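Much of what follows relies on a compact textual record of a protein's fold. Think of the row as the fold of the chain written in a discrete alphabet. An example makes this concrete, so a full record is given next.


***
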Amino acid sequence: MNLIFFGTPPFAAELFRFLFERGLKITAVVTQPDRPQGRSLKVAPSAVKQAAALLDPDLPILQPEKSSDPQFLETLSDLKGDLYVVAAFGQILPQKLLSLPPLGCINVHASLLPKYRGAAPIQRALMNGDPETGVSIQKMVYRLDAGDVIAEARLPLPLDMNYGDLQERLCTLSKPLLLEVIRRFETGIPPGAVQDESQATFAPKIQPAETEIQWNRSARSLHNLVRSLSPRPGAWCWIEMGGERKKLKILRSALLDAIGAPGALLSGEKGRCIVAAQNGALELLDVQLEGKKAMSAADWLRGISIPFTF
């Protein structure tokens, strides 16, 4: 059975590497074009492209600007893939593409469908304080994450788990599940469970305005915001230092029952930074002042020689 793998970020690269090392026959990789990355905005290949080039330099790598491009679709058709495996590719796939492989297309989605269809399921689950999440392997249709679910695996969400930790856990959870589903396709197209449309929710891409911390929100919602955006892009707030207004990213926090006016600094001594919010407070554990490296709040406080306010 010939597989064609679609994916772009490190999450997808880990899945590609896992399948390749298990000896599955991957005949081509489709990933996003090389893009500017990092602070330098230097053009660089995707994580999936890097992994594919390292593991098999002869493996065809396709990088369409648009997955609906006729020339790309013709090239893809000529590769004779039996099953397309998609994981965080980053483009909406047209019906012409979905109809190419005889066994169809499957997608690894980082939520328990039909909950959190869309671009940011991991962040939204954390932001909303969900007690659990998981991964779903679904048959792809020309509707956003609406295909029948072949298999799923669940994962509890402790209150201290952040986006980086959860993404890693979900990737680990996905590997054996995806392999088991692909093996089932070797004997035909497996059945899937129809999603309950009445239970569908959506997880749109995180917008920049959502990343700012407003201290008049509840402490729990702010803690969930912090962990949903850590380590990247990072939830942030304004801080006044020596007559200057600067951005402070909060990368790790803890919930406290302390009481005070929202935004009031309740403690800035003995290495602890506690800020009041509605219905509680946040203790800042890891922070990053604009222009500086990330560090513990204790180290940050030790380096400050001027008063500051939130």
About this structure: The mean pLDDT is 96. The CA atoms of residues 44 and 255 lie 39 Å apart.
